Amino acid sequence: MSPGLPGSLVRLLLPGALLLPACVDEPEPPWGHAPPLSELPATVDPPPVTDWLAEYWTFPVPAQGDAPPDWTPLEQRLDPDACGTCHPAQLADWRESWHHLAMGPGVLGQIVDWDGTDDRLVHQCQTCHAPLTEQHARLQQDDTWVDNSLLDEDMRAQGLTCAGCHVRQHQRYGPPREGRDVDESGRALAEGPHDGFIPRPEFQSSAFCARCHDFRPSQRALNGKLLQETGEEWRRTAFAAEGRTCQSCHMPEGRHLWKGIHDKDIVASGVEIRGGLQEAGSLLTPVTASLTLTNTGVGHRLPTYTTPEIKLILVQVDADDNEIARSRREGSVARRIKPDLSKELFDTRLLPGESYTLPYAVRRQPGAVAVVARVEVWPDEAYRRFYEIKLRRPENHPKGEAMLREALQNSIDSRYTLWEERWPLP
Ligand code: HEC
Ligand code: HEC
Ligand code: HEC
Ligand code: HEC
Ligand code: HEC
Question: How far is the CA of 158 from the centre of ligand 3 (A)?
Fold first, then answer.
């Protein structure tokens, strides 16, 4: 049934003979279209994009150039393994993070076939996924595109690296440190390795993250909403007013894990799930129940992107715990968009304090002994659909096909059950 179409209208369109008694009271999942952010009051002003920050996030990040000749070979290197020799904790975290996977098979599998045929598009993707000049296969020179002699293939495959966030012209930048003096050039610890670093307050601002997690206002919007606007969503929450930045939730104690929708624990920490049986029903009367998901601790819409879907499921089971198919009802907390990005089908995402309820009223099925209530997370759902469509024309992806197949499998394997309960039918 097409989301958004009221049930009464659908029933009008269906011949009366198809209206089985079991369906008459079947409630529609509450599909809808979350309002554009312009209609919701902000709790804080946009965090300032200082001149320093605007220049820091120039894309691609300009070539680093030659390292100071008096540095050791280790200090001169830009790859994460080199940084990790002295910063092992950050390296171990980052390796597990999605920033490291930002050039995984789903991204690289698409762009390898655009190198040399659509270089401009590759550049656009790498803005966020692998921003260093040393990670680009091709560069624009005047009006033509040429092979990049500085390309480091290994670095390209490693996505958003330490240097992407911390190094410009070999100079290290990092968050300010209490009690650490700076010299007249703004440098701290100038005698240490890599001549110290320049502390910058922007590292602790949401504006640092928003450069990649919010599209530009001039980019395509659907129903008044950009495809990514996490920082703007955050500005509509009380968390922002309380001074809780992206870093405070995603980098607790400076950890470099950036856990999100793929991680069961952080998702569980941001939601409350409640539900229960109201009527046990009989062969003539419906079993009634409901399941409610509330955003209690996510500092933006849950989920913020158009990629994940959070599924709420209610279904009757028999004595062997087999699901009775006809009795299954489900709803989605997600923003589902047509794969060609032309239309928003529904947007049931939740700002903090908002809830989504899946109601249930289905005739008790023969053999039913319980209702199972479940919340599943499908973190990569929109991409799963997208890869399936792409792989129908493998001839368009001579270099990337195998990677796209791997990405499709990954997008199925990443699903997990967030919560489940079994409510016996007396
Ligand atoms: C030879 C060892 C060594 C290497 C290699 C190294 N660093 Fe450092 N780095 C240090 C030391 C020591 C400090 C000072 C730490 C302290 O004061 O606690 C530091 C400080 C920093 C800081 C300042 C943050 C802070 O508050 O402590 C950042 C950011 C940083 N390094 C990033 C990097 C990156 C990125 C790389 C790789 C491109 C790298 N470093 C390579 C040893 C190293
Ligand atoms: C240079 C661009 C860039 C910057 C800056 C950036 N990110 Fe990301 N971030 C990405 C990209 C690209 C991905 C997606 C990686 C992928 O899945 O391929 C991502 C993914 C994530 C995820 C995803 C987790 C998941 O499970 O899907 C979180 C959380 C996150 N970033 C938080 C942050 C925070 C917090 C900051 C600021 C400290 C930040 N990011 C800064 C580009 C960036
Ligand atoms: C403005 C920053 C930005 C740009 C530009 C961008 N992305 Fe992303 N991309 C992200 C972020 C952030 C995520 C994480 C979304 C999530 O976790 O749901 C992501 C996720 C993805 C994913 C799914 C995760 C994965 O690693 O498999 C793919 C595939 C992807 N992007 C491909 C692309 C391609 C191809 C382009 C260019 C046409 C592109 N992106 C341009 C920021 C960006
Ligand atoms: C997405 C951008 C990003 C990437 C990638 C990244 N960092 Fe950081 N890093 C930050 C931010 C932001 C902070 C400040 C966090 C805070 O203070 O809340 C930070 C802090 C640090 C610090 C200061 C120590 C501390 O605990 O405050 C060091 C050292 C550091 N990073 C090293 C690294 C190394 C090494 C890598 C690669 C293995 C890396 N970073 C990758 C954004 C990044
Ligand atoms: C109050 C804590 C909190 C704050 C503040 C916060 N987040 Fe999150 N974030 C979460 C939780 C919890 C999740 C897991 C649930 C989810 O995926 O929405 C999450 C998920 C994510 C994801 C995973 C993808 C998705 O579709 O949800 C990304 C990316 C992300 N956050 C980026 C950011 C950025 C960028 C900021 C700052 C503008 C930020 N977050 C601020 C708590 C927070």
Answer: 14
Per-residue model confidence (pLDDT) at position 389 = 96
- Residue 386: how many CB atoms within 10 A of its CB? 21
What residues contact 99, with CB distance under 8 A and at least 6 apart? 159, 160, 258
Query: Does 165 contact ligand 1 (Cβ within 6 A)?
Result: no
Alpha helical stretches, state H, 158-296: 162-166, 206-213, 230-234, 238-241, 246-250, 264-269
What type of residue is 116?
Answer: G
Which residue's entry shows tokens 């499908």?
Answer: 378
- Residue 257's alpha-carbon distances to 203, 266, 411, in angstroms, are 16, 11, 20
Task: Specify the residue with its C-alpha closest to ligand 4, atom 6.
Answer: 162
Average pLDDT, the chain: 92
Query: Looking at ligand 4, which atom is closest to the CA of residue 164?
Result: 5
Question: Shortest CA distance to 168 belongs to which of 296, 231, 78?
Answer: 78
The answer, yes or no, to whether any atom of ligand 5 lies below 6 A from the CB of 246, is yes
Calculate the CA 13 to chain-centre distance. Answer: 37
CB atoms within 10 A of CB 282: 11
Query: Rounded CA gap, 273 and 27, in Å?
Result: 20
Q: What is the pLDDT of residues 220-261, one digit of tens each?
A: 999 999 999 999 999 999 999 999 999 999 999 999 999 999
Q: Residue 300's CB: how many other CB atoms inside 10 A?
A: 26
Report d(CA 61, CA 255) in Å as an integer: 24
State which amino acid sits at residue 6.
P
CB distance 409 to 391 below 8 Å: no
Orientation angle between helical segments 381-390 and 401-413, nearest 10 degrees: 150
374 Cα–ligand 4 center, Å: 37
Ligand 4 in contact with 61 (CB < 6 A)? no
Judged by DSSP in three states, 282 sits in coil
Helix, coil or strand: residue 110 = helix
- 25-69 tens-digit pLDDT: 344 566 899 999 999 999 999 999 999 999 999 999 999 999 999
pLDDT in tens, 157-185: 999 999 999 999 999 999 998 877 788 77
